[in-house]
Known about the structure:
The chain is of the alpha+beta class. The protein has one helix spanning 9-21; strands at residues 2-6, 31-36, 45-50. Strands 1-3-2 form a three-stranded antiparallel β-sheet, covered by helices on one side. A hairpin with an 8-residue loop joins strand 2 (31-36) and strand 3. The chain is flat, with a radius of gyration of 16 Å.
Amino acid sequence: MVVFETQDHSEWRTRLRELRAADEPIDWESARIDTLCGRLTYPTTYRLSVFVPDPRPAGPGAG
């Protein structure tokens, strides 16, 4: 699940600081930070997402 995404580096840093200082911080153990490097036609994008486990129980045929 994407928590936050921006193409503005200063906004990215500000939002990360806010999330770290929040009363209910995110689970950083399940967090993923991506920097999608831009080229001439695409700007660099910064994305914070967290892993969301599948709520369905694993059945005998799962896997």
